[in-house]
Amino acid sequence: MDYVKAFLVGGLICALVQILLDRTKLMPGRVMVLLVCSGAVLGFLNIYQPIVSFAKAGASVPLLGFGNLLWKGVKEAVRKDGLIGIFTGGFTASAAGISAALVFGYLGSLVFEPKMKK
Q1: Total-model pTM
Q2: Residue 57 and residue 4 in contact, taking contact as beta carbons nearer than 8 Å
Q3: TM segments (predicted)?
Q4: Among 23, 78, 102, 106, who pairs with 85 as Cys (CB 3.0-4.6 Å)?
Q5: Exposed, middle or buried, 3 (CB in 10 Å: 0-12/13-18/19+)?
Q6: What integer pLDDT is reported at residue 82 of this predicted model?
Q7: Which residues contact 34 (CB under 8 A, 6 or more apart)?
């Protein structure tokens, strides 16, 4: 049943983003920023954690989950280090995920032949 919940919530998030892309003139980069900021705001309002508890990876993997992760890192760092945590918390919380994305992206470029768009 966990797979079904993850599929439904993740699919709903993706469907809503696709509707946003199709119905507005927003560029994909701006939509991505909107998703990350929305995840942070939903985390701040304590709305996102119940969704993650219900859907697990279906809610934590999309960009909303990244924004929520940044918020959690900032909140923890501010609690631990004070005001300087506003600047360091997001980096600390997301360092492993960003590093993995860079390493696997580089490894993928070694395995496959990357080409520039024409």
Answers
A1: 0.81
A2: no
A3: 6-24, 31-48, 83-107
A4: 78
A5: exposed
A6: 94
A7: 26
